[in-house]
Amino acid sequence: YRKWKHDRFLARAQAALEEDDVRTAALQLRKALLAQPDNVASARLMARLAEENRSPQIVGWRERIAELEPGVASNYLAWAGAPLQFGDLASARKALNLAADGSATDAGFH
């Protein structure tokens, strides 16, 4: 039932984004994440929404995606790039250090 709810909310969020209804998309995504907090697709869409709106929340979403998919270099690089938009060098350094310490194991990083 939770997966069905999540998928329904996620579909509604995607439809709202296609209509440029950011407010509805954000609401539906929050509901989707309540139903399935560890869903990467929802976290990615929240990161996209934050990025499009130049929100500092992008940093937290990029970090969350790296937590949900450890070992994927592109996640760490996206996380490192996000705080740089806001002058947050410490957060960028944290992401790069985790990637360099072996958290990112895919071939794209090395």
Describe the protein.
This protein has 110 residues and is mainly alpha-helical. The chain is built from six helices and no strands. It has helices at 2-18, 22-35, 40-52, 57-68, 73-84, 89-103. Helix 5 (73-84) packs antiparallel against helix 6. The longest helix is centred in the N-terminal third of the chain and has 17 residues, at 2-18. The model has no long low-confidence stretch (mean pLDDT 90).
> So what's the overall shape?
globular
Radius of gyration: 15 Å
Number of strands: 0
Low-confidence stretches: none
Question: Which descriptors would you attach to this protein?
Answer:
mainly alpha, globular, 110 residues
Question: How would you concisely characterize the structure shown here?
Answer:
By secondary structure, the protein is mainly alpha-helical.
Secondary structure elements and pairings:
Layout: H1 2-18, H2 22-35, H3 40-52, H4 57-68, H5 73-84, H6 89-103
Helix pairs in contact: 1-2, 2-3, 3-4, 4-5, 5-6
